[in-house]
Fold this sequence. Notes:
By secondary structure, chain A is of the alpha+beta class. Chain A is 32% helix and 25% strand. Chain A is globular and about 45 Å long. Chain B has a four-stranded antiparallel beta sheet with strand order 3-4-11-6, with no helix packed on it. Chain B has a four-stranded antiparallel beta sheet with strand order 7-10-5-14, with no helix packed on it. Chain B has a two-stranded antiparallel sheet with strand order 1-2. The relative contact order of chain B is 0.15.
Amino acid sequence: xxxxxxxxxxxxxxxVLVGCGTDSKxxxxxxxAGDLKAATVALGLLAQTSVWNAASEVTDTNGNxxxxxxxxIATAKPLMFELFITWAPDSAHGAAPNRRYAWLQAVIGPxxxxxxxxxxxxxxxxxxxxxxxxxxxxxxxxEKCLIEETGTFALVPAD
Amino acid sequence: xxSQSRLSFSHxxxxxxxxxxxxxxMRSAIPRVSAVRAATLTLFxxxxxxxxTGCGGSSETGGISASSVKQAYADELRPNVVAHIIYGIxxxxxxxxxxxxxxxxxxxxxxxxxxxxxxxxDTGFINEFSWLPPGGFAVTRIVxxxxxxxxxxxxxxxxxxxxxSASAISGSASREIxxxxxxxxxxxxxxxxxxxLTVDFIGRYTATNSRxxxxxxxxxxxxxxxxDVVPRVQFGFVNGWVEIDSITPVPYKIPSYLGGESSQGDxxxxxxxxLSAHAKACVDAGSGG
Lengths: 159, 289
């Protein structure tokens, strides 16, 4: 039963991820309406993993909000999304002492949590070292995202 | 569908979380045949809804409205406001931390020491960490480690028991123990410890037993250390700590109670450079298991 329910979630996510993203009209972040729908599903899948726990714990222990949260379309076919969140040890805005720069990267595709995903949390002492991990995380198409206290992630498109 | 609720609170600077799985009750109450039928209907219904609403561009905003964006900002996770550490203040006001690991240092004969680090977090595999020695402690050689590769850092951190001046910071480097590729598995339940790594090494400790403890704190854009003089009695090892450098989150929630483990927790670890696949599912440990 548990496995069936899990399969239902995974397959539903896969169906939506595969079936969407073909609209032509794009918003300021470069997402189509179909992309936004698929992105919401993908973020819902990530919220069922410890990726949200990691985001929550880094936020709480660093003591301030993330400096950025980007949800980027890594590839269009197959539709792969990349969640990229960064934190800075900004003590002027609430960060605790002895904290470092941190980043969280989560890549998820049409197979959802069955295969092809990649999760990573890293810490580093310098902004330069952090920047070396950005890759294409901020390139269009990309939307701003938020970590929600309800245990989920939310997309907040520019328009 | 999967249904998880989470209750979090902090106490004494530690964050506690409890996951509730509301489907666990349903699993035991619904007969098997009905459960299969319900799951099948759920699957097709959800897939149909996904196809009908998710494609075709019927909505210009993809189901995200101005009001939902406003609500998202209202629900944004915001850390508690904390005070910078001032000795003597209520620990609840101090910066929060999470119980990602525990470490124990054991003194052995002939200047040998054993460091044990255990993954106690609810996030995932610890792949890399650094151990910053306590003040007055000089690590001279790594003897062995139970997993991964452990070595001494090239440049080192500042020895907090040296004279607190700018010149002393650069002249009293105490090298860290850096461990890579350790793949320390998380616990199946955050109520239990996860995997443990031990590092045996040779070191030299100069006890100060003073009435002034000199801690260190990381500051500045380059993350350098500055002294933090604390008026309290210090005997023995004080102020060494573990810094986690890399974690691979697991693709499921780690529960806080026994019996709530995800079935994915039973999957084997992926090998080096191996990705989970439909035919051979595995859990990515980040560094080859």
